Amino acid sequence: MITEETQALVDRGIMLPLMEEFYTIQGEGFHKGTAAYFIRIGGCDVGCHWCDVKESWDAGLHPPTHIGEIVENAVSYSDTVVVTGGEPLTWDMTELTKSLKAKGCNIHIETSGAYKLTGIWDWICLSPKKIKLPTEEIYPLANELKVIVFNKHDLKFAEEQAAKVGENCILYLQPEWSNREKMIPLIVDYVMKNPKWKVSLQTHKYLNIP
């Protein structure tokens, strides 16, 4: 159990349930192949059955960590920081991103968009989920739309989501890892017929890096 004082700091975004943090190569989407420091925040109630980080769902399993410590760790490695989860927008990202910006960081977020957008972001990767759709406010702000394809119906969902983002948003279809052998041929064929889309792969998994 955390104290009321600590909970109050978490509620304000001064402390966050930190699952893990690490320096690696971005494996997905527009910035794939580039080095970045990842901050994975615990807590998510979207509940995708194919999620590969289900251990992130329960925020109570991850210790509330002061953002000052998180920021200092990040800037010792990189000026490009990716905030992910879990679902990072479960929490108020204002203070974390202000602190990172004060250190000159370029800040990305990977989010389902299911909660109010807080924080200052240089790049927003919106990865919407059918179970809990994004808030309307985030669609025009998304720099890239990344739809995970587990089955054929996800392509219809992808088009519905693409209709809501801005005209400059980059569109990606990414095969769900456990079903990739079936989905990759489907996605390749779809992108060739609909070239507004691009293929995204989890290249970090092929490279066997975090």
UniProtKB/TrEMBL annotation:
Enzyme Commission no: 4.3.99.3
InterPro entries: 7-CO-7-deazaguanine_synth-like, Aldolase_TIM, rSAM, rSAM_sf
Residues bound to [4Fe-4S] cluster: 44, 48, 51
Pathway as given in its UniProt record: Purine metabolism; 7-cyano-7-deazaguanine biosynthesis
Cofactor names: S-adenosyl-L-methionine; Mg(2+); [4Fe-4S] cluster
Lineage: superkingdom: Bacteria
Reactions catalysed according to its record: 6-carboxy-5,6,7,8-tetrahydropterin + H(+) = 7-carboxy-7-carbaguanine + NH4(+)
Membrane as UniProt keyword: no
Domain Radical SAM core stretches: 31-210
Free-text comment on the cofactor: Binds 1 S-adenosyl-L-methionine per subunit.
Chain sites annotated for binding substrate: 25-27, 40, 84, 210
Pfam families in alphabetical order: Radical_SAM
Keyword Iron-sulfur: yes
EC main group: lyase
Subunit structure: Homodimer.
Family: Belongs to the radical SAM superfamily. 7-carboxy-7-deazaguanine synthase family.
Functional summary from the UniProt entry: Catalyzes the complex heterocyclic radical-mediated conversion of 6-carboxy-5,6,7,8-tetrahydropterin (CPH4) to 7-carboxy-7-deazaguanine (CDG), a step common to the biosynthetic pathways of all 7-deazapurine-containing compounds.
Protein name (database record): 7-carboxy-7-deazaguanine synthase
UniProt source species: Salegentibacter chungangensis
Organism lineage string: Bacteria, Pseudomonadati, Bacteroidota, Flavobacteriia, Flavobacteriales
Encoding gene, per UniProt annotation: queE
